[in-house]
Amino acid sequence: MFIQSETDSKFVVLDQIYDIQSDAIKGRKTFDHSPAYLAIEACAQLGAFHIRFDIGFCRHVFLINVKAFNLCPSKSLNGQYIITGNCLSRSSDAFLYAIQLISNAERSAYKGNFLFGVADYDERFDQHQLSEHYQNLFSDLYVADFVSPKPKGVISNALQKNIGMIDV
Q1: In this structure, what CATH number is given to the domain that contains residue 138?
Q2: Are the C-beta atoms of residues 32 and 83 closer than 8 Å to each other?
Q3: Separation CA 42–CA 85 (nearest Å)
Q4: What residue numbers bound the domain in which 149 lies?
Q5: What is the pTM of this model?
Q6: What region, left, alpha or beta, does residue 51 occupy, with left being phi > 0 and alpha being psi -120 to 50 degrees?
Q7: Is there a contact between 20 and 142 (Cβ–Cβ < 8 Å)?
């Protein structure tokens, strides 16, 4: 059973998703003397949102592995960072992304490879609640002038309106 509470939205680390393409996504996160693991979480969330968007929010997405992320665990992050993700490879059940976190203030970039899995919704992961939940989160995070290409699969009218795909 999926239980949604007010604290669920606090687990979303990203501040904004502002560009989405067929094989790439960009977002922003402002950190306030935050631990390094939140940078990894923000990168993972960005990649997972890209996959969910690409497959029409119709399957469950989860992180399998992070390889070679070059951020020191004791590093404290402060300021605004741009996060970019590029899909390097994909199959029906797995996606590999190169994701980087870029700080202009620090003149640095942290990057790694993130492997995601996708699985059909089932009795443990309720499709109706989770699909709607992630569509709503995406709708709240996404701010842009255009989307190219248009998403595959079913997507809510509220989300389509928010990203300019339908007129109201």
Answers
A1: 3.10.129.10
A2: no
A3: 11
A4: 14-162
A5: 0.80
A6: alpha
A7: yes
